[in-house]
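Let us practice reading a record.
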Amino acid sequence: NREIVMYHRASNSLVLGKMRESAEQYEEFLKAFPESERFLDAGLADLSIARFNLQDYTASIAAVDRILAERPDSNQLGRTLNIKGDAYTVMASNLSKEQEEQEAEWRREGLEAYVAAVGAGEAALARDGDRADFYKNSIAEALWKSADIYYQNEEIEKGLAQYDHFFPDYAGTYWEAQISVFSLEHLEAAGRGEEGLNQVEKMILLLGN
């Protein structure tokens, strides 16, 4: 079956870290099978990863947007919306001081992508509990990264809302240490210092082991 062969050829290249080869192979696959029932969203999701790693952020974002347009209920959306958020965040950070307006716009786009990733990830988790750990890590990543942008924007209450959303459901994920440490000063300012310190101490003990 040509469809399966072309898809897995691109997938294998991605696993081997051959990003340019993988991106080109995924693009060939998507051109040959633009409405693939089995692999369209997965192919676009992996294309977004390959293009991101090639620093082709515009193409990476375009792949995510195509999933949104053509497979809006895809279980791939949580992780790929995080990639879209990362792409906008990196592009914003690369701008000069004279490009403040564009920087603000891209940071806003990045934040919107992370916030959307939370909802998409939780929808996927509800549909497909067998991959709970995968979805929980994507959701946790989105909660932390959106909280971080809110803190940078001095929208502290919104950042703490993401922190509160994180616990307890996403405790134990890779991103728990980040959101715990970087939320501490804001928790202290909100009169929740003891809670924040207890959480950071928990992370120190876990990481120490």
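A brief commentary: The mean pLDDT is 96.
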